[in-house]
Write a structure and sequence with these properties.
By secondary structure, the chain is of the alpha+beta class. Helix content is 37%, strand content 30%. The protein has a single domain, classed as Double Stranded RNA Binding Domain (2-Layer Sandwich), CATH 3.30.160.
């Protein structure tokens, strides 16, 4: 596998209200962001994800060993997310407002 090969990674993100703020977490990258609204939290989390993915790609392309670590209990949270996302979509109401997915391109060796 060459260092130029890439893969598309689907990131699952959940936003929860905590103490009057909204906290978003990316399950696959174990990243979090906070905002005063769901939309602000989502924007901040997307910015953090973009910076993280660029940094990981740069490190990997410079020969560094890079390991992406998901959140604790990832398998169960992923299952919950996928089931909830699918159930809401089936009812034609769209995905839940406090969840979203984001596709990113990362080096294939990560």
């Amino acid at each position: 596998m060459s260092r130029n090969e890439v893969k598309i990674m689907l990131l699952r993100c959940i936003i929860k209200e905590q103490n009057g703020f909204f906290v978003g977490t990316c399950l696959e990258l174990s990243l979090s962001a906070m905002g005063k609204s769901v939309d602000e939290c989502k924007r901040e989390l997307q910015k953090i994800i973009d910076v993280h993915v660029k940094t990981v790609s740069d490190l990997y392309n410079n020969g560094e060993q890079v390991l992406i670590t998901p959140v604790k209990y990832y398998i169960f949270k992923k299952l919950w997310f996928d089931c909830r996302y699918a159930c809401k979509s089936i009812r034609f109401t769209g995905p839940p407002k406090n969840t979203f997915t984001k596709k990113v391109v990362v080096p294939a060796g990560v």
